[in-house]
Amino acid sequence: MLCPHCANRTSIRSSWMLSTLLRQVRYRCENDECGCIFLAHVEVVRIIVPSATPHPDVNLPDRYVATNATPLPANDVNPIPANDDGDDAAIAVPLDPMTP
Predict the structure, then answer these.
(1) Is 78 part of a structural domain of the chain?
(2) How far apart, in whole angstroms, are the C-alpha atoms of residue 34 and residue 5?
(3) Cα(91)–Cα(88) distance, rounded to whole angstroms?
(4) What is the band of 41 on the pLDDT scale with cuts at 50, 70, 90?
(5) How many domains does the chain fold into?
(6) What share of the chain in percent tops pLDDT 90?
(7) 29 class by beta-carbon count within 10 Å (0-12 exposed, 13-18 middle, 19+ buried)
(8) Secondary structure of residue 61 in the 3-state scheme
(9) Is residue 86 included in any domain, yes or no?
(10) Residue 18: which domain range?
(11) What is the DSSP track for 44-90?
(12) What percent of the chain has pLDDT over 70?
């Protein structure tokens, strides 16, 4: 995390668990001329890979779900049927070249 005042690097000095999903972290700016010390919160908001030993009291979404999005097919947004060759598909073509 960068210092909010001088934008230099910071280091974590200590942290405290506020809840199962939330920690408070104390940062110190590494720029000695600045010397800013500040607190930040680190929160678990979503599970990317599910746990093999889930905690029964932890209820987090396991992937990002957009609130206004409509589900899309997994293979293609606008699939073209495999048997549709366009307007020419309706024209019969003789298989025997000797047939007029």
Answers:
(1) no
(2) 8
(3) 6
(4) very high
(5) 1
(6) 45
(7) buried
(8) coil
(9) no
(10) 1-67
(11) ----SS--SS--TT----SS---SSPPP--SS-SSPPPTT---GGGG
(12) 62
Number of residues that this document lists for the chain: 100
CA distance 92 to 100: 12
Is 16 part of a structural domain of the chain?
yes
Q: What is the mean pLDDT of residues 11-40?
A: 96
pLDDT score at 65: 54
Question: What is the mean pLDDT of the segment spanning 23-51?
Answer: 94
CB neighbour list of residue 73: distance below 8 Å, 6 or more residues apart:
79
Domain assignment of residue 59, yes or no? yes
Handedness of CA 39, 45, 49, 52 (dihedral sign): positive
- By the 10 Å C-beta count (0-12 exposed, 13-18 middle, 19+ buried), 10 is classed as buried
